[in-house]
Structures are given as structure tokens and as C-alpha cells.
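Risk register update: the risk of archive-format incompatibility is retired. Evidence:
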Amino acid sequence: MAPPVLIVPGLNNSGPGHWQSLWENKYPNFRRVEQENWDFPICEEWVKRLDFHISEAKTAPLVIAHSLGCLTVAHWAKQYTRQLHGALLVAPPDLENMGERAESDFLPVPRQRLPFPSLLVASENDPWSTLERSRSLAEAWGSRFVNAGPAGHINADAGFGPWPLGEHLLAEMRGFAAPDVPAPKTKGLEAIS
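Archived output:
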């Protein structure tokens, strides 16, 4: 039986053309963690909202986070002991090196090992983080690391919409194959331990 799935968008939410929204429409049992304020995030509020949704799940959910949603998951893991099936963490921003653009309420970024399986996907040309910083975060969190190649911020602005690599990773984390999705092309999957 597949775990329940929670979608955790980042700053400004994920619009209708974003892969998170497309997945939510494709899989009716996926649920979005809705935040009260998408434009001016407050870490404590975002973390509490995530915990509410996790606590409502009948079994340990799989979390699919993008951008600032990834940091929300890391802050949640630092504060709560509920179980997760796992987390697919896509394009976490490097707030520590963003200067005035940083959502400072989310600093410092937790660097403790996550107490559940996780996979971090990063891009070679993400305007919000370097590949090296993303790999370092994956190492700190104990996440498997995937280099998605030159994929921008892996969002609708970068052309993702449909995201075959993400669907394969999602299927793997849910525990079954995705036969209707073409095989992904990646720069590599690294196991970080």
C-alpha cells in the first residue's frame, strides 16, 4: 500500500503549471500543505502547518517539497518526532548565501541528519543555490543526491511542468514503478551516508 503524499510548495506557492500542481491533479489522494501566507513566510507557522497535516495522515506520509518547502521539512524534523515514510526534496535554496534576498526567518538552516529516508534533487544552474551547496546539504541531511543537470530552479519558470525524472523518483520512493513515464536522464545518483 502506497503511503499518503503531502505536497509542500515553497515561497509564493506552486502555480497551476508547476510539476507539484500537476502531480496533485494527476493523483487525487495527494494533498497540498496550504500555508496562510505564501508571500511572507514565517518559519514557525509553516512548520506548524506541516505538522498539522502530518499528524492528520493515517500512516506515515511521503513529503514532496520544493524550494523553501525543503527547509520547512528540515525545520520540522528538528522539532518533531512524528514519522515520515520519506521526503523528496527538490531545489532547496541556499539562504545562507543570498544576502538580502534570504527568508531570514528560516535561518539558520538545520544541518542535522534527517530521521527518515530522503532524496535531494538539485540543478547545475539553479539561481537560488549552487550544486556544491546542494550536495553539502544532502550530505548533512543524509539524503541521496541527484544532479538533475541544467534544470534551473526545477519549477515552471525553468520549464517544469511535466517532470519525468521527478515522476521516476516519486515512484521509487512510493515503492512502485512508473511505466507511463519515459526513463529519466540524470547526471547521476549519489548515495550519501
